[in-house]
Design a protein that fits this description.
This protein has 301 residues and is mostly helical. The protein has a single domain (80-300), classed as MetI-like (MetI-like fold, Orthogonal Bundle), CATH 1.10.3720. Helices cover 74% and strands 0% of the residues. It has eleven helices and no strands. It has helices at 3-28, 33-52, 90-126, 128-143, 146-157, 161-187, 191-198, 203-239, 251-257, 267-294, 296-300. Helix 3 (90-126) runs antiparallel to helix 8. The longest helix has 37 residues, at 90-126. The protein is globular and about 75 Å long.
Length: 301
């Protein structure tokens, strides 16, 4: 009867010990705890925002339209961040917008990483005409203005979440391909690759089992640094009316909705703008720290 509670207590004790060791290691590496905390809060908002939203983010009441935040005159505690011109609760829309904005960015980022890492591995390992062909494609994408290319794609495919994900993938894989190719070009001359070839390993096994683990740190740093730009791209397209369509509660859509009311109801645009700014700044700070911590060239210096 007492064995189960004892086992649970032992597991909890081990978890606490691991958490404490992890915290001490992060503190030793001078981790940016404030940006990390903001990212954790944003992740919770993205996962549970629609569930935690007190109201339906797409419907409102004209009787409560343009209600200011609760600390201002005529504000209501029932709508802590106020309402927009249609009476929709701003807090509910910010919470729900976190999920749709971050989901679009994260899914697009994963797709871009898969394509970019694969092409970078193939280009760096095989070299020759394969490398030349893929690098010319990379040069073409780098020469194309990203936002203009995204606008053309959205115009052709139509505004939807699926289109946004396709645009993010199409404009974001280049960075992974370039950096992974550079890492593979240096790694493929190492002794462990020569030893793997001598034992009869095929090209696919060498790339997946030997080269890929050695470039994952670089991929993680690129992903962290690039996520902020991707979120800004998603918000910019939505702001221009070319991204996530109305009345979906996306942060870019909310900023666009509040343009005509900035002097009368600034909170409609300001709060989603603050959310985007905090998220991007936190991502950049954490990305810089990860680059300084995990990049072998900087760590060696």
């Amino acid at each position: 009867m007492t064995a189960a509670p004892t086992a649970i207590a032992a597991r909890l004790s081990r978890l606490r010990s691991l958490a404490w060791r992890g915290f001490r290691e992060l503190r030793r590496r001078k981790a940016p705890f404030v940006p990390m905390s903001i990212l954790a809060l944003m992740a919770v908002m993205g996962a549970f925002g629609p569930i935690a939203a007190p109201y339906d983010p797409t419907t409102g009441s004209l009787l409560t339209s343009l209600t200011p935040p609760f600390w201002m005159e005529d504000g209501q505690i029932a709508h802590p961040l106020g309402t927009d011109f249609q009476g929709r609760d701003v807090l509910s829309r910010v919470l729900s917008g976190a999920q749709i904005t971050m989901m679009s960015a994260v899914v697009g980022l994963v797709g871009a990483a898969l394509i970019g890492v694969t092409l970078g591995l193939v280009s760096g390992y095989f070299g020759s005409w394969v490398d030349a062909l893929l690098m010319r494609l990379v040069d073409f994408m780098l020469a194309m203005p990203g936002l203009l290319f995204a606008m053309v794609m959205v115009t052709g495919l139509g505004s939807s979440v699926r289109t946004i994900i396709i645009v993010v993938v199409a404009t974001s894989w280049v960075a992974y391909a370039r950096y992974v190719r550079g890492e593979v070009l240096s790694q493929r001359e190492r002794d462990y690759v020569t030893a793997a070839l001598a034992t009869g390993c095929g090209s696919g096994r060498i790339m997946l089992r030997h080269l890929l683990p050695n470039v994952l740190a670089t991929v993680l740093v690129i992903a962290t640094l690039q996520t902020g730009g991707i979120i800004l791209l998603v918000a910019s397209l939505s702001f221009l009316g070319l991204g996530i369509p109305k009345p979906t509660a996306a942060w870019g859509v909310m900023i666009a909705d509040g343009r005509a009311w900035l002097l009368q109801a600034w909170w409609i645009s300001v709060f989603p703008g603050v959310a985007i700014s905090l998220l991007i700044i936190s991502l950049n700070l954490v990305g810089d720290w990860m680059r300084d911590t995990f990049d072998p060239r900087l760590r060696g210096a």
